[in-house]
């Protein structure tokens, strides 16, 4: 199989939807996860780099972001005005895109997305609609603290919200849970609905410099990613693992014993599952299905 070149993310502050490939021939974890024909003539399609066209990159980023909300809508995560996903803008890197206040996830389209400026207010260039104050305070703090976080996701999904009341991380009980091995934090200081900048800053500090996922005690889940799809995949898998954890805890109460994945095995598995391209491509399949079902959200 022809190898997919590795990515130097240090030089790509905003790689979402447009990863520029290097010429390094070393196999990546994505290469090891895919097998082609014996002649090595099959490989995954490269991720578009747009040839430096940031306006085209912005267009596709908005389509992907709208698709992420459509996915959440199908999952039933909508709860009124709660839950933003934000994505840094490739044209103006100190701006980011967010969903408007009070619009159901299933009704979000690319044209309804709001552009937020560095001053924290709605900017020209996107929909002129109000945004969620708490969402702004949390997400703006995370984007400032984590320049690698092209996308940040948070909502009050049912299983994540249920597990968050324990203020504990999930256990490494399954192969899927290895995605979060040494890659998950818990924020134990619930301070009520976030209407002050300092609470957002505390959440950002708790997330730390590298973790892709967090459990906010008595609140819900938060994930970040170098692409929208990586971020969304982390969120969905953390939600599922919270569900698994709740099921396991119920079974343990009936006398069954847990079997944990050994740290060495979890770490080895994480080297593949945590590589950005694996979750990105996995969620891309969901996006393709959404577009096939109803492409109207792209406009």
Automatic annotation (TrEMBL):
It comes from the Eukaryota. Residues 1-25 are annotated as: Disordered. Coiled coil: none annotated. SUPFAM superfamilies: AraD/HMP-PK domain-like (SSF53639). Pfam families: Aldolase_II (PF00596). Residues 63-246 form the Class II aldolase/adducin N-terminal domain. GO terms for molecular function: actin filament binding. GO terms for cellular component: cytoskeleton. InterPro entries: Aldolase-II_Adducin_sf, Aldolase_II/adducin_N, Aldolase_II/adducin_N_sf. This is Arad-like aldolase/epimerase. It comes from Calocera viscosa (strain TUFC12733).
């Amino acid at each position: 199989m022809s190898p997919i070149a590795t990515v130097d993310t240090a030089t790509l502050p905003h790689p979402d939807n447009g990863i520029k490939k290097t010429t390094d021939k070393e196999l990546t974890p994505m290469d090891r996860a895919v097998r082609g024909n014996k002649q090595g003539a099959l490989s995954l399609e490269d991720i578009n780099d747009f040839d430096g066209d940031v306006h085209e990159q912005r267009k596709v980023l908005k389509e992907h972001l709208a698709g992420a909300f459509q996915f959440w809508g199908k999952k039933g995560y909508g709860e009124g005005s709660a839950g933003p996903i934000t994505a840094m803008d490739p044209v103006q890197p100190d701006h980011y895109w967010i969903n408007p206040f009070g619009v159901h996830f299933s009704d979000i389209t690319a044209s309804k997305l709001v552009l937020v400026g560095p001053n924290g207010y709605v900017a020209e260039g996107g929909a002129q609609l109000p945004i969620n104050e708490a969402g702004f305070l949390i997400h703006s703090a995370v984007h400032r603290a984590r320049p690698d976080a092209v996308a940040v996701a948070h909502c009050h999904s049912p299983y994540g919200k249920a597990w968050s009341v324990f203020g504990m991380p999930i256990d490494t009980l399954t192969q899927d849970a290895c995605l979060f091995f040494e890659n998950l934090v818990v924020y134990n200081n619930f301070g009520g609905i976030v209407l002050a900048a300092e609470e957002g800053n505390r959440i950002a500090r708790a997330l730390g410099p590298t973790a892709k996922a967090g459990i906010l005690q008595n609140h819900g889940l938060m994930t970040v990613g170098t692409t929208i799809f990586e971020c969304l995949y982390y969120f969905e898998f953390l939600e599922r693992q919270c569900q698994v954890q709740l099921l396991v805890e119920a079974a343990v109460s009936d006398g069954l014993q847990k079997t944990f994945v050994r740290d060495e095995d979890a770490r080895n598995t994480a080297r593949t599952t945590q590589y950005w391209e694996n979750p990105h491509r996995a969620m891309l399949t969901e996006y393709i299905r959404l577009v096939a079902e109803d492409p109207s959200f792209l406009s």
